[in-house]
Design goal:
single chain; globular; alpha+beta
Length: 192
C-alpha cells in the first residue's frame, strides 16, 4: 500500500472493525488486474459476518477514500447481503472501480450491474444511499486528515430506478419504508 494512502485505509478498517465489534470479519485483498490496478492499487473488501448488529453479511470497500483525484470527504461503500459469497465481494470491487475510474458515485446516484444481483433476482441496479441499516455511526469515518463517508449500495430493480428518475430519490425511499423491504433479500418484490 502506498505511504500516502496507508493512514486513510487503516482508519477506515479500524472504524469498520470498531463498529462491527463482535462480528467475524475477513479482509480480502483484491487485484483488479492490469489496466485497472492503477485506479485502486490497494483495494480490499471487508466481509463482515452476522453478529450483534444484525443477521446479514456486510461487505465494505477499503481503498476508495484515498484514491487519486478524490476531493472532499472520500467515499467507501457498504452492501448488505444474505450470505458470505464471492459474488458480493466482486460486486463491491466493481463499485469501487466504477467510482475511482472517473464516474464518481455519490449519494443518490445509481449504477447498473449488468445482470441480476444474484441469479433469479429482479434487482439489477445499485442505488447509493445513506447506510440506513447501520445509521450515522457507520456513515462518518474520521481520518487522519478529514473524514470519509461510508455509503450504502442497495440492490434495486430497473422499475425502482425509473420511479426514482420520475419522482425523486426521497419518494423512492418512502416506498421502501412503506413496503417495508428486506434489503438483503435478493428475491424481494419491487416496490415500483
Amino acid at each position: 500500500m502506498s505511504e500516502a494512502r496507508l493512514p486513510a485505509a487503516e482508519a477506515v478498517e479500524a472504524h469498520v472493525r470498531a463498529f462491527f465489534d463482535g462480528h467475524p470479519l475477513e479482509v480480502l485483498h483484491l487485484d483488479l488486474g492490469p489496466g485497472r490496478r492503477e485506479a485502486l492499487p490497494d483495494l480490499r473488501v471487508l466481509a463482515v459476518g452476522p453478529g450483534p448488529r444484525g443477521d446479514d453479511w456486510a461487505y465494505v470497500t477499503v481503498g476508495c477514500c484515498a484514491a487519486p483525484g478524490e476531493g472532499g470527504p472520500g467515499l467507501e461503500f457498504v452492501m448488505t447481503a444474505p450470505t458470505r459469497d464471492q459474488r458480493f465481494v466482486d460486486l463491491m470491487a466493481m463499485v469501487a472501480y466504477y467510482h475511482c475510474s472517473g464516474h464518481r458515485l455519490g449519494l443518490e446516484h445509481s449504477m447498473p450491474i449488468g445482470e441480476p444481483w444474484v441469479p433469479g433476482s429482479a434487482c439489477d441496479h445499485l442505488l447509493v444511499s445513506l447506510p440506513h441499516p447501520y445509521g450515522p455511526a457507520l456513515e462518518r469515518c474520521p481520518l487522519p486528515e478529514g473524514y470519509a463517508r461510508l455509503l450504502w449500495t442497495l440492490p434495486v430493480t430497473r422499475a425502482e430506478i425509473e420511479y426514482r428518475r420520475e419522482h425523486g430519490h426521497e419518494a423512492l425511499e418512502r416506498l421502501f419504508e412503506q413496503a417495508p423491504i428486506t434489503p438483503a433479500d435478493p428475491f424481494r418484490a419491487s416496490v415500483a
